[in-house]
Design goal:
By secondary structure, the chain is α+β, with helices and mostly antiparallel strands. It contains eight helices and four strands; from the N terminus they run H-H-H-H-H-H-E-H-E-E-E-H. The chain has two domains: about 100 residues, Peroxidase, domain 1 (Orthogonal Bundle), CATH 1.10.520.20; about 70 residues. Strand 3 and strand 4 form a beta hairpin. The longest helix is centred in the N-terminal third of the chain and has 20 residues. The N and C termini lie far apart (about 45 Å). The relative contact order is 0.11. The mean pLDDT is about 90.
Length: about 180
């Protein structure tokens, strides 16, 4: 996605966030967008229709109302129609991402991804969550994956920060240090 599109997505997401907070339905709008994107992922035809510049805007607006009906908030429907009117359908995924960033910030939530060499126990996960919460001062939502290639320990990703506490990472750092000393 071009930087111009990312900037546009941020502007649209910020406006949608403020409107949803003002209407006190941020959670519902988030759910609406998430469900719509899930449907588009499951149905490439729906995605193709949504992003097609060949489908007239008026027709697309009518179809969105027919397909979504009363299953989405009025604000969500209005927002989707705005994207259609402005021919910005292609930024919906980026708007969803940016909206979630705004929502997480307002809720003091930080999302972390932890990769363990072996599946962690619940106690290990809770300990990591507690440690990250103390470090960041935020509520931590942790996603866990397992990758035996790290040999042991854990690698944590917090936005753009990576905390490498893996055995493999330690061995690589020792190797680099030995090569620089030689």
């Amino acid at each position: 996605m071009a930087s111009k599109d990312i900037r546009a997505a941020k502007r649209y997401a910020t406006a949608l966030f403020h409107a949803a907070v003002h209407a006190d339905n941020l959670t519902k709008v988030e759910t609406d967008l998430s469900n719509l994107l899930k449907w588009m992922q499951e149905s490439p035809v729906l995605r193709q229709y949504w992003e097609s510049p060949l489908v007239p805007s008026g027709r697309k607006r009518e179809q969105i109302k027919t397909v979504l009906g009363d299953s989405v908030e009025d604000l969500t429907l209005s927002f989707l129609r705005l994207l259609i009117d402005k021919r910005r359908e292609d930024i919906l995924d980026a708007v969803d991402f940016e909206l979630r960033q705004h929502a997480d910030t307002s809720r003091h939530i930080i999302r972390a991804e932890a990769t363990f060499a072996l599946a962690p126990t619940d106690a290990e996960k809770q300990s990591l969550i507690k440690s990250l919460a103390q470090r960041t001062g935020e509520n931590v939502e942790l996603t866990v994956s397992v990758d035996a290639n790290i040999l042991g320990g854990v690698v944590v990703r917090l936005h753009d920060t990576i905390i490498d506490g893996s055995v493999r990472g330690t061995l690589e750092r020792v190797r680099e240090q030995l090569l620089h000393e030689a």
